[in-house]
Amino acid sequence: MSIDSPILRIEGRVAEIGQGLKIARMIPNRFQRTIGAWCFLDHAGPVDFVEGEGMNVGPHPHIGLQTFTWMIEGTVRHIDSLGNNQMIYPNQVNLMTAGKGISHAEISPTDKASRLHAAQLWIALPDSHRHMEPAFQNYPELPVVETDCFSGTILVGSSLGITSPVSVFTPLVAVDLVAKKNSTFELPLDLNFEHGITLLEGEATVDGESLEAGSLLYFAVGHSSVTMSCEVGARVLMIGGEPFEEDLLLWWNFVGRTQAEIEQARGDWDPRSSRFGVIDEAIAGKRLHAPSLEGIHLKVTRK
Ligand code: MN
Prior knowledge:
The chain contains 2 helices and 26 strands. The protein is mainly beta and 303 residues long.
């Protein structure tokens, strides 16, 4: 509970990824650019694809961040320039650490009709780790806390007495909660973290505020818990972290600190450069083209 720490309702916006897959993007937004080091939050689906259709994001580069995928329904194949070719299944996390540079593609199998429901997030790497060697890990199983009221999967960090194995470089948390019955319960929060809570499915309120899919309730530092009221089957995603104090430049798929390094990364996304490795376009599809940076002055993301 907290008396004077503000709660902010943030409406997400609809964006498209790949070939027309619509997602709700909740951060960054003009009120809150980051929550801890979480600097991107997309909620994809639930969406039903007919045979021959699915998520199809061709090869593209990243620097300075980790991409974090929490798969709720459906399957997506991850292919990257380190040679990984990994299918992600429901209740699994894919974590790709871009560091100084990696490229990847994300493609759903399209041989039959399918359903996709996922949360995809980015984590800004701190200055101490943003030039590290790239890495990729699939976490086939995450720890789950069972209570009478809910199942809580500890995706990142520690919550409810359990710690996730997912490897991050700043203090962060993420928990997926599914209500087993209509119930009201306290969810403990870290007083030193800011938090965001969104609805992935069903109906729920937090501290009396209704949750809606595609929007986010933001809790500034200073809340030690929230009161959740959930209908049976409601699914809620809570993320949080220690406020991230470093200035960031976010552009396209890059997280950096200066315009020069973003321009360098854009220039290096070229088949003649080795920086982002090689991806077999026969299995991963056609490379995505970087938008133009001509005449664009990038603005630093400040808290
Ligand atoms: Mn990506």
